[in-house]
Amino acid sequence: MTESSSPSMHSSPLNDNNESYGNVPEIPIEIVSEEEMAFIEAALASARPSLSSALATVASSSSSPCSGSQSFLSLTQFASTRSVQAISLFSKRRLSSCTEPTSVGDIEDSGDFSNTQKKVRVTETLLHRFRRKRGLSVTDVTATEWCEKQMEFVLLLGKQKRTQAMKSGSFRHAKLEEEVVKRVRVQVKSVEDIWAVKLMNFIVGVHQLLFEGLTRELPLISFVEGTWMVGIIDEIQMPSTEASQNPKLLDTKTRVQSTLPAEPQRRNGRLQLMCYKYMWDNLVADNFPSNQFFDFFTLNPHYILSEEIQQNTAKSGIPAKTLDDLVRYYRNTCCMLPPADDQLILRYEHQKDNSLLGEDEFTYDSGWLKTQIQSCLEFWLGEREANYTPEEERWKCRFCRFSSVCPANAKANDGTKEQLSISSH
After folding, report:
1. Which residues make beta-bridge pairs with 237?
2. How does DSSP assign 10-22, residue by residue?
3. 3-state DSSP call for residue 246?
4. Can you give the pTM of this predicted structure?
5. Which DSSP symbol is given to 2?
6. How far apart are the first and last CA of the chain?
7. C or N: which end of the chain has fewer Cβ atoms within 10 Å?
8. What confidence tens digit (pLDDT) does each residue in 315-342 have?
9. Can you give the pLDDT at residue 72?
10. Nearest C-alpha neighbor of 186 from the set 2, 29, 327, 6
11. Residue 343: which of 253, 239, 260 has the closest Cα?
């Protein structure tokens, strides 16, 4: 799954017009979640100088917002027998100094990264520095499990340029989403509006799941292991028999080669799906601390939602006026859901023709998952240095753009030089 998409809003199948979180796969998935990057860019683009000082502080904390910007959420309709709508984010910004790329040097000019293992722990953690007011994405977790050192390089130097394989995977997910979703646009005026759309997309997606038995690209925001985590579930199905009432989570992976992936890749995919189940189960157990949510993301719970968003939520049967109203509807929706099924499914398709290569059905392992998340958080919270990928999995280094400067490959790279420019990302 590519975990990249912009916020979208679904509308309840009980109404002809509603909203959904039309996730535009640009995330993606992908070391740093495109979903998260799209959200931040949208938040900055939508921040206006006339907003309250609190909101201005939120925007400026990540980057300077561009003046004269317009942000739009696209409403989408579920293309099934029941008509439902979703919303996804589109940003339009004037070209200005704040949107121009910053000139940076090569990796060798950025400092001696060969000694990062020995450096003293910095006071600002990676989580605070790179995911403040954004939360940790599931993609962050899986990328960290794949290789912590690579994740560190990506955070400090920038992610790699999207490959054709990544673009093909995103395109496939977009096509799958279009089978049940159709987009239209709606304007947003603040960060609170953007979060309102994300919450509505979940609510409407759940309505579609309950009434039609299927929904795709469902956005999740959950509080797990003391950390806010975000993600987008590829697909959720309700069981067709009465033997089980627990929704089943699925994730689709596209492959360039017509073969199933190696075990480390399968393990990484299992971790992703288990994270989704953990987040889902936390939500249905009402483990959603609203006050902490507003504080962490610096949101005003009493903010009056834009008129256009209020109209669309009303069409979905949810007369929410403030962000706090919508958070309460979000929590109420979660409380009426059962936990996800313990059996999870990874589906592998060939990119060339979308043919099914195979499915990996496995059982949720709570103990293993929590160990993985806690290990991941140790790295993100600066409790230890980044680990290198295990010796038996060093084949991953052949596909890593940082391999020539990584201490793990120091001997193999003696006498070689590679210019890795951040600006090329």
Report:
1. 214, 248
2. E--TTSSS-EEE-
3. coil
4. 0.71
5. -
6. 21
7. C
8. 889 999 999 999 999 999 999 999 999 9
9. 64
10. 6
11. 239
